[in-house]
Structure formats: structure tokens, C-alpha cells
Amino acid sequence: MSPPDIELISVKNLHKSFGVTKVLRGLNFTVRSGQIHALLGGNGAGKSTMIRIITGGIRKDDGEITFSSSNAAEPKIAVVHQELALLPDLSVAENIALVHAASGRSIVRPRQQAEIAHAALSLIDPQLAARDLHLKASELSMHEGQIVEIARALSTGAEVLLLDEPTANLTAGETERLFLVLRRLVREKNIGIVFVSHRMKEIRQLCDVCTIIRDGLTAVDAAPLSTLTDSEIVHQMGQPAHRDEQRKRRNITTAEGSIMLKGPTGDVLVRKGQILGLAGAPAGPSQLIALLNGTGRASRWSIAAEGWPSHPLSPRQAIDLGIGYVSGDRHTKGVLAQLPIVDNVLASRRIRERRYWVHGEERNECMELVQRLKLKAGSIWDLPGTLSGGNQQKLLVARWLAMPLKLVVFEEPTRGVDIGTKRDIYGLIRTMAEQGTTVVWWSTENVELLELCDEILAFDTEGHAKGLLPPDRFNEDALADLTGMAA
Ligand SMILES: Nc1ncnc2c1ncn2[C@@H]1O[C@H](COP(=O)(O)OP(=O)(O)OP(=O)(O)O)[C@@H](O)[C@H]1O
């Protein structure tokens, strides 16, 4: 007997404004049991605002939201937001058990905590479950924190799981494992899952139907994904069609301005203006990135280049050397939440030049950068908290675009960024590289590395460098093999 088809959440004619900005303008959305539902839309379309209203974080102005009869009084919805929401001073086990105590059960005892957390984490990462239950959340990497959050959401027994770009920072292997778990949950427990993502390949891999939001309205309502082509989806999101350009193969041979990165298992020569991709679990790339951004004095990597120290001793020294850095952790290491957009965009330059104030002409430059990245903001004097997640990410990228740099390091820089803007960012980065800035780009999205980079350095799950992939060996299978992520 097939499981019952239940309308778990029904949203009708939803309206929401912030000040004079109308964000939701009569939105409809339905989540059914037994389905994985992709919620799509460009940056700032209104996806998170709708989710925040459904989960009670903010109030709607108008419209109707109903939950299925089984959970109408207390809808059992678990959300994993783009930003991590773990309590830093609690252990992994306590963080996971917290939601069980909060849902009305008696205080969870330590042994019970450990059991709940172990069972939840084992679903995605058995190694983490065996190793890290007692670590404080603050001691976890972004990537591990993300796994703990997803495990916590999975463990609540929710009828609807809302996952907002959950695979950013997860490696291909973890993503694969997560997808298996999600499919099993849908099949066995007949729950509904809402998957917010800008990664088309993953959407197709995982989801059954999609709703597309465009400027606060429903452009496509729960259509089976098999009925829509990629270009129709992009069109419905209101984004320009993607021209399938042939990747320009660049063969940079000049030795001038090259940097030798000396690693524990071999050296990598990075030429001036080259885009070097880093692939694989963060254990390996993070050592190399720490070396370059001045936080890795003890890194097993070192630099050998004329005029460069073997290890930059601080972030300031790294900036003085002409090294820029966009952190993958935009919440705690990126966005300056208390300062307006204009200060956020100009922050790097002002740190380098040790200045407090924004010059008049810089305001115009900031406006120009905001326009180039199609950053959706009311005004450059607004706080970054008023921006959608993808637009906050663009802010961090904008910070380095106008700087004369020798080298720039990006960690998962297109996290939460919509398809159209990703292409814009790739274009801007290519231009930066063509003008002579060397780019080091770590991403868990292999398709992105293959599209953008000139060479890719792959690391295995233990963090060991496994080899440099030249353009003529660029393909997903080769990358999966080298990173130990072959499915
Ligand atoms: N507190 C706020 N004050 C003012 N404007 C806001 C506030 N919160 C959200 N907005 C605006 O509402 C719009 C929709 O934002 P929302 O976060 O819902 O978009 P989104 O579709 O989730 O985008 P993304 O893909 O970038 O995460 C954005 O233009 C954003 O700037």
C-alpha cells in the first residue's frame, strides 16, 4: 500500500514588506509528504523570508498558512539555515540533544545525550560520531558544524525538513551520504523535505518537484523537475540565459611572479595570473589556506618565492604582501555586521591604508561594485543584516575586487550565490587573473572548479595532496578519484 499523500504545509497569498520594500507579494507554496521539493529563486527573491514566516521567526503581513492536521498545533518543522546555529560552548552531544529537551521531554541525561547524538551523526558521518561527540561546537570546522546541524535536524523526527543550501562546505562524499539519508527518510517516514539550493546538479540529483520564486511571487508551482530544462528554470528565475562558452584554456608559461608552494608531499608552482583550484575535504586545503592568509605559522606548507617570507606571520603581513582572503565562514570571519555595506565593501583597502573614513569618490566606487555584482540592497548605508544570504556573500567578494593584489584566496566563495551571479563572479575573477592576480580557489563544488580553474590540486579525505590535475585531465571522475570521493 502506498503511503498517504498529505499536504504538510500550504502557503497562500503570502505578503511581507520590510519598510517600503515589498518582499513577498502574494506567494503560494505547498509541501507534500513523500516529496523532496526544491525551492528555487535568485538572490533576494524571498525564499528565506518565506521560511522565516513559516517557522515563526517573523510575522506575515497577510496571507494564509496551514499545517497538516497531525501537526497543526505545533508544526514539527526542522530548519537548517545557511548560517550555523550551534551553541559554541556546548559539546556536539549537548547541541544535538538540546532540541530534544526543548521539545518538552525531561532533561536529557549525559548518557542519553551521547546515544541520541551518536545515532544522529552516524547517519551522515560515522567517523565524526565516533570521534567528536565531546568536542565543543566552537572547536569544529565550518564543515563539521554543518554536519552536526543537519544531523540534529534529522534527529528531531520532524515531518518537514527545510534545508537552506546545506551542501555548501560538504565534500562530494558527504553530500552523497546526506542525499542517501534524505531519500531514505522520505521513503520510510513519508516526510516532506524542502531543499533550497543554487547547485543545479544537486537539485536534479535529489529533488522530485520544484517551486520557483521570482520577486516575491510564485513563478513555478510544484512542477516535476523532469518537466523543466535547466534553461527553463534559469529563465523562470528571471536570470539571463547562460551561453555555453568553451572554457578558454590558458597556458601560462612566464616564470616571473611565480610562487612555489612547498608541501609535505611535493611542491606546486603557481604562476602569476593562474587560477589554482583546491579540491577535497577541508583538512588539506585549510593548511595551505592558513599559510597564505597569515594564520598558519605551523602549517606544513611553506612559500618559496623571491621577496616572500616562507610563512606570513599574521593576516596583516599577508595583506601587506598583497594577499587577499575571502573566508568561507562569512558569519564570524567575513561580514562586519555592525557596519554599513559601504564600510564592508571598502574594509580591506582601509585596513591596508590604515584609514577610518570613506572618501567621497570611494562611495561612487562602492556603488559601481554593488552594481557590477548585482548586489540587491536598499542603500549602501544599510546594514548587511538586511541583505539576503547570497547578497552578503557578494559583499565579501566585492571587498577584494577593487584591490591591487598579488594573490587572492577564496574559500567556497559562491556559497548561496545564484546561478546568474555565479557566472558574473567567475567572469570578474577571470578578469582579475588576466590582469595578473594569482587566484587560489577552494570549493566543494567540483563542477565549479572544473569550469573556472587552470589547474586543480586535489586532496584526499586525510588531507594529503594527491596530485595536480592539468586541464587536459579535467573531468569529474578524475577529480572524484583523486579526492577519494568516487561514488
Ligand atoms: N530585515 C530586513 N530588512 C530589510 N530588508 C530585508 C530584511 N530581510 C530581508 N530583506 C530583503 O528581503 C529580500 C528577500 O530576502 P531573502 O533573504 O528572503 O531572499 P532569498 O531568496 O532567501 O535570497 P538568497 O538566495 O540570497 O538567500 C532581500 O532583498 C532582502 O534584502
From TrEMBL:
Recorded GO molecular functions are: ATP binding
Q: Which residue ranges run through the membrane?
A: none
Q: Domain of life, per the record?
A: Bacteria
For whether the record's keyword set contains Hydrolase, the answer is no
**Ranges of residues in domain ABC transporter:** 9-240, 247-486
Alphabetical keyword list? ATP-binding, Membrane, Nucleotide-binding, Repeat, Sugar transport, Transport
* PROSITE patterns per UniProt: ABC_TRANSPORTER_1 (PS00211), ABC_TRANSPORTER_2 (PS50893)
What the entry lists under Pfam families is as follows:
ABC_tran (PF00005)
| Keyword hit for Iron | no
Please report which protein family the annotation says this sequence is part of. Answer: Belongs to the ABC transporter superfamily.
Give the protein's recorded name.
Sugar ABC transporter ATP-binding protein
Q: Which organism is it from?
A: Rhizobium oryzicola
Which lineage ranks, top first, belong to the organism behind this chain?
A: Bacteria, Pseudomonadati, Pseudomonadota, Alphaproteobacteria, Hyphomicrobiales
